[in-house]
């Protein structure tokens, strides 16, 4: 290796390590922050303190953490279940029983992915009020079940599902619904896992729509709690850090445990 | 005669069979279509109708295009529009270029610890937008971690007013967004690079090209479809920017100014304010939202055009 090559190697690694440290450091900082008092957090103290229990106690007694966590888990779980059933059935319907009309509808659906949420937020809000779903979890869940991205993601996967198997099941006299639920679904586990992770993180992290729909404190989610705490006049930074760690933990665990599906869920639909 | 009869019966059997399958097609898509019509198509169309109305409280009257004309004289709207485009034009290219460079480096098989680098750089993408915005707000406070560290290393003499000055507030938001989304985009590029045969690089190496030439002559052209895709996604994402400016600014939802001197006011935040914070004017807010639709459509078409021309 000549000098120039070694130099470029050193530069490349320095660059990589710098980006790596910048990417990972805030995670370290929030874990440290969870154990520190408000003053220490804001001063940027980088070592562990002894306020962890205190921060938790404050969260539990003043902000009803268990209730908030229950709300978040309930909303995310129901959204995931609804989305998996509705979106995968729709994708199967579009892909396996093709018709001109449905292809056109599918085209319109894909196109509407381009419409920003802000453009439908106001009529959606009025609709939720009409349906008496304001300040209910159903009001948050229902509009997010038919996720276009996940319908698209499922359809891309169904494209590679061997049609002969479905034909064979038909010849054997299995009904269409039974074919779907007992042959297709069980053989697409990784697709379902990826879609579930994507749907869960989206729902768990969502902010704008829950902010509009959920109005009383005992209905709110953990994401809304972070936002509330941070906009207080005298923010309790240690408590905020604890909340951030709690809110980030489920997605991080999922990421490390199911990394393959996690990345597949985000990029899988693009490959076709 | 007999054969003909058999054929017609087979044909009619096929037709009725197709009809049954078609019915299943509607059956499987039924729930999704009902939900999409109710919670997506109806609001989109109703919003367009609403944008031609003026509503103060419950009184509504038809004003035609007046809401859209009013936009041109609305200082707040013009600020929001300018801010949104500033973020779009500066942040998106920086982030996508950084993501491309990182992907190109991490695709090189001679680099050690590729898996660890990849995972670490992707990690910010698992945080919620609200969580990281609040985290950055704390790190970039006046006597916060960033200023303390920079002063300890004698890089700056006095603290930078990150979130207290209109210019620096924008810089902070751009840094924060780049932190959150670079790794995310990198993963798209990495998966795209898998489809480029590795020996293409090896033979280019033999031909005496250096890494930078390989980046511009092999990596960029081969990744073009994915670059277009990520550009469109980032454009639409930036046009909808809401969680970050709302949570980086002090006071959050109830603040009178989003960032110092409204320097972080974006179109989506303005829509929220018009609809839910000030005296609600749903009609005017709907008009602003259609401005976003308009720009999303125009920019997407332009990006597709650019993609098409060079082929």
From TrEMBL, chain A:
> Is this entry keyworded Membrane?
yes
The transmembrane residues are 12-31, 75-94, 106-128, 134-154, 191-209, 237-258
Q: Which SUPFAM superfamilies match?
A: MetI-like
Q: How does it sit in the membrane?
A: Multi-pass membrane protein
Q: Which CDD domains match?
A: TM_PBP2 (cd06261)
Q: Where in the cell is it found?
A: Cell membrane
Gene3D superfamilies, A to Z? MetI-like
* CC terms in the record's Gene Ontology section: plasma membrane
Q: Which InterPro entries match?
A: MetI-like, MetI-like_sf
A single GO BP: transmembrane transport
Q: Which residues form the ABC transmembrane type-1 domain?
A: 69-258
UniProt lists the family membership as follows: Belongs to the binding-protein-dependent transport system permease family.
From the Swiss-Prot or TrEMBL record, give the protein name: ABC-type sugar transport system, permease component
């Amino acid at each position: 290796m000549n000098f120039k090559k070694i130099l470029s190697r050193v530069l490349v690694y320095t660059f990589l390590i710098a980006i790596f440290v910048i990417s990972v450091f805030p995670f370290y900082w929030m874990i440290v922050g969870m154990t520190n008092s408000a003053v220490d957090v804001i001063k940027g103290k980088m070592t562990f303190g002894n306020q962890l229990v205190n921060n938790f106690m404050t969260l539990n007694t003043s902000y009803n953490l268990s209730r908030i966590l229950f709300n978040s888990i309930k909303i995310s779980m129901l959204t995931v279940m609804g989305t998996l059933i509705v979106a995968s059935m729709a994708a199967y319907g579009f892909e396996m029983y093709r018709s001109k009309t449905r292809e056109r509808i599918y085209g319109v659906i894909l196109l509407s992915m381009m419409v920003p949420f802000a453009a439908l937020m106001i009529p959606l809000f009025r609709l939720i009020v009409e349906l008496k779903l304001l300040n209910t979890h159903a009001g948050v869940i229902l509009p997010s079940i038919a996720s276009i991205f996940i319908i698209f993601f499922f359809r891309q996967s169904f494209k590679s599902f061997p049609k002969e198997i479905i034909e064979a099941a038909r010849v054997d006299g299995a009904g269409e619904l039974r074919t779907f639920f007992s042959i297709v679904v069980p053989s697409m586990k990784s697709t379902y896992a990826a879609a579930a992770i994507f749907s869960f993180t989206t729902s768990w992290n969502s902010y704008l729509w829950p902010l509009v729909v959920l109005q009383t404190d005992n209905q709110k989610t953990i994401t809304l709690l972070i936002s509330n705490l941070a906009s207080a006049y005298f923010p309790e930074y240690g408590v905020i850090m604890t909340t951030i760690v709690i809110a980030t933990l489920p997605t991080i665990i999922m990421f490390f445990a199911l990394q393959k599906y996690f990345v597949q869920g985000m990029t899988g639909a693009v490959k076709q | 005669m007999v054969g003909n009869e058999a054929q017609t019966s087979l044909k009619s059997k096929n037709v009725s069979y197709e009809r049954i399958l078609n019915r299943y097609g509607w059956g499987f898509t039924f729930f999704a279509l009902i939900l999409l019509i109710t919670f997506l198509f109806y609001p989109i169309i109703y919003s367009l109708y609403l944008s031609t109305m003026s509503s103060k409280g419950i009184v509504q009257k038809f004003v035609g295009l007046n809401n859209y004309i009013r936009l041109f004289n609305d200082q707040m709207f013009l600020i929001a529009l300018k801010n949104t485009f500033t973020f779009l034009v500066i942040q998106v290219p920086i982030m996508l270029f950084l993501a491309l460079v990182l992907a190109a480096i991490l695709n090189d098989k001679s680099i050690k610890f590729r898996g660890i680098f990849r995972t670490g750089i992707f990690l910010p993408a698992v945080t919620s937008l609200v969580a990281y915005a609040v985290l950055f707000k704390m790190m970039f406070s006046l006597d916060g971690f960033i200023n303390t560290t920079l002063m300890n290393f004698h890089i700056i003499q006095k603290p930078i007013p990150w979130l207290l000055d209109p210019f620096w507030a924008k810089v902070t938001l751009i840094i924060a967004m780049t932190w959150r989304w670079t790794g995310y985009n990198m993963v798209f590029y990495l998966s795209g690079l898998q489809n480029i045969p590795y020996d293409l690089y090896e033979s280019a190496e033999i031909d005496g090209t250096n890494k930078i030439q390989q980046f511009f002559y092999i990596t960029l052209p081969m990744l073009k479809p994915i670059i277009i895709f990520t550009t469109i996604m980032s454009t639409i994402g930036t046009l909808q920017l809401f969680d970050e400016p709302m949570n980086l600014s002090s006071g959050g939802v109830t603040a009178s100014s989003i960032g110092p001197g409204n320097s972080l006011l974006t179109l989506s935040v303005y829509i929220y304010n018009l609809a839910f914070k000030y005296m609600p004017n749903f009609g005017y807010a709907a008009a602003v939202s259609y401005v976003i639709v308009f720009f999303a459509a125009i920019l997407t078409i332009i990006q597709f055009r650019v993609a098409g021309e060079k082929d």
